[in-house]
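Progress report, Aim 2. The chain analyzed during this reporting quarter is listed below.
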Amino acid sequence: MKQIWKRIYRLALLALGVCMCAALPAGAEAKDDVNESLRASMINTAEGLSKTIMGLSQKEIDAYKESGDEFTVMAMEAWESSREELGKFKSLGKPKIEAISDGYSLKIPGEFSKYEAQFVYLFDETGAPTSFSIDVQYPMSVLLQRAGMNTLMGMGIVFAMLIFLTFVISMFRFIGQAGEKTQKEEERPVPVQAQRRKLAAAAVPQQDDGELVAVIAAAIAAYEGTSTDSFVVRSIRKANRKKEKW
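Predicted structure tokens for the chain:
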């Protein structure tokens, strides 16, 4: 009895899995299903806009960029930034339409003299274009070359910054030596004779010659026991006394 119930349970699970697998493709087909008239309208719009954009001159592109329409400005800027890189136009391929959450995505492959590209359009549910971009299809050699250049530029910038930091750190040594030299000069002891001269100059006030003559004359008069009128001081000289050697 238990084995019979196990078989029934397994068969039920198998049937449920088959139903789910069968339902997924049906849902995908329903999502990707596009009305034929709407499909034709979007394809004609995309192909016509692509050919018209590629035939515009720079003057016409600038005029359309000033129109103020968001989609028109987006299309002009996308083509203006890619046309020099793509080169001369050759042909358009078969468009592919895919249903998305808020409308439709349409891609048209284009062949040019330099690279291939895809014109990517987004349409709303009514078939009105809302977005435009150009996806340049670079070959693997170009992608590897650009990746190598980006890597070299990054490594070059890193090494340049390391060299600059090393130079700045090495300059700290000279800055420290200059500071120590200035500090040593400020802390250098002043000679004893120079200190004595400074102290004597600070302790003895400077007097003019008239006051000095009067003081000396009064001292001489007091020593001789006479008055200052009995002599005249004409000059004053400092005595040069040398130390006697014993």
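The beta strands are 89-92, 96-100, 103-112, 116-123, 129-137. Residues 78 and 133 are 6 Å apart (CA to CA). These observations will guide the mutagenesis work planned for the next reporting period.
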